[in-house]
Amino acid sequence: MPKLLVTGAAGHLGRAVIHHLLETEQVAPADLIAGSRDLSKLSDLAAKGVETRRVDFNDAEGLASAFAGVERVLLISTDDLATPGGRLKQHQAAVSAATSAGVRHLVYTSMPNPDRSLVSFAPDHLGTEKAIQQSGLAYTILRNAWYHDNYLMSMPHNLQVGKWFTAMGDGRITNISRDDCARAAAAALARPAAENRIFTLTGSRSLNAHEIASLVTEATGKPLEVVPVSDEQLAQGLAGAGLPDFVVKMLVSADANVRAGYFDLVTNDFNALTGREPQSLRDFLAAHRDALVAGH
C-alpha cells in the first residue's frame, strides 16, 4: 500500500477520515501518516502505529519534509478564516510542496460552486482548486455541502428562544454530515480514480428553512418559528451576540448563498464514492437530540 497522508488530522474531519481509512478501507496503520501542527494531539494515533508528522501550512520548508515519501495527500482546508487571503496562501504553499516532494495524487476538500458562491471564503476554495489544476498533480476535488453538524452550533440557542432568524428567504439547501464527507474522503484517498475528478458531496434532499425547522421540532419536540430577516438585520443580530466580524460575514453570506440557489443541488457522488446512502438530516438530528436541547 502506498503512503497516505491526512493533513489536519487533529480536527473533527481529519480524525474521522483516519477512522474510516483504518476501519472501512482497511488501510494498515503503518501505511498511514497523520499530520498536524501539534503532534501532542495525535498521541493516540501514534499509539496505534500511525506515523505522525508536523504539518504547518505556514512553514514551507517543513511542508517539504512532511510530504517526503508520500504518494497521496488529503489536503483538508485550513481553519484560517480570520486572515484575508491567509488560507489560500497556506493552500498554495501546500500544493507547491506536494509537487516538489513528488506526491502523485492530491485530494482536496472544497465547497459547492466555488466559482459562483457568495460565501465569504469561496475565493479560497476556487483559488486552491486552480492551483491544484495548474500543478500537474493528479487530483480529486471533493466539494462538500454545508454540514448537518453546523446546525448544532446555532439551533440550541434558536430552540431556547423558539425562533430561528434567517436570511435564507425561500432558498433551499442540501446538507450532508461531516462523517459522511470523511467517509467519502477516505474512499477517494484509498481508491483514487484513474482520471482527475471533481465530486460534489450532498445529501439526498434539498430543504427550505421551514422544512429544516420542522425536522428540528420533530427531533426535539420543541417548537421553532422561522423568522425571515434581511442580511443587514441578521448581521446586526449576530454582531450583537458578540460574534467576530469574520464569522458574521461568513454566516450572512452563507444565508445569501442559499437564497441565491447556489447550495440547492443534489448529486449521487457520495453514493458513487462509498456505495452507501448519505445520512438524512432527519436521522442526524434525531441522533443528536441531546446536543440540540442542551440548556433546556
UniProtKB/TrEMBL annotation:
Residues 8-192 form the NAD(P)-binding domain. This is SDR family oxidoreductase. PANTHER family: NMRA-LIKE DOMAIN-CONTAINING PROTEIN, QUINONE OXIDOREDUCTASE 2. It comes from the Bacteria. Signal peptide: none annotated. SUPFAM superfamilies: NAD(P)-binding Rossmann-fold domains. It comes from Neorhizobium turbinariae. The lineage of its organism: Bacteria, Pseudomonadati, Pseudomonadota, Alphaproteobacteria, Hyphomicrobiales. InterPro entries: NAD(P)-bd_dom, NAD(P)-bd_dom_sf, NmrA-type_oxidoreductase.
